[in-house]
Amino acid sequence: MTEAFIFVFLGVMAASFIQRVTGFGFGIFIMTILPFIMPSYAEATALSGTLAMVTAFLTAVKYRKAVNWKKLLPILLTFIVVSFFAVLLLGSVNDRSLKLVLGVIMIVVSIYFFFFSERIHLPPTLPVQFGMGSLSALMGGLFAMQGPPAIVYFVSSAEDKDEYIALTQWYFFLGNLALTFFRASHGFLTPTVGKMWLVGLPAGFLGLYLGEKVYKKLPAGTIRKVVYAYMALAGILTLIFAR
Fold this sequence. Notes:
The protein is mainly α. 79% of the residues lie in helices and 0% in strands. Helix 1 packs across helix 3, helix 1 packs across helix 9 and helix 5 packs antiparallel against helix 10. The protein has one domain. It has 10 helices and no strands.
């Protein structure tokens, strides 16, 4: 158990650091660790979501004046509705199958962001928001990795860096808040999740603090590429060791 505490602490600190510097990546990073520590895959998603909710909230409040609700609400409401059904599905799929799918998704997402993300630009139209919100909800409800589809939309629609951070962090906070209620209603918030949450919370604050310090100094693009490479490797290892 002590080793699990250490892995959770270090993993959450790194994930929140990445989230603060790049605007996303908490779930992507931490879900390369939690499924192999927590008793079940559902508990891993619950822990990831509750921690991501808190870390996103702190940054969201700071950038509350920069958020454009017209760009946020349609994709957010779509996410909340669809994620309810995704969480329902999570309870009926075995852990090994979910880990295998997670491994494939991590590899595909890492390749996409590494090579193609800067070439795709989406307008803030309702069809785009409904589509990205639905895809994000499926990935969030099943894998606690709702970021990639939403980021594609927010990067394209945000006017500047501050609006991008505001949109992403309010989306992750409110989306994970809804997911936490859904997961709690299905019994995914167990005592083990609570213990690990208490371990991860100070680590999240520390990661945010460190990320804030380097936010304007360290090239976010460099960190993103390191994260993508790590995610691809983690996806391959997940496929190999999934059980």
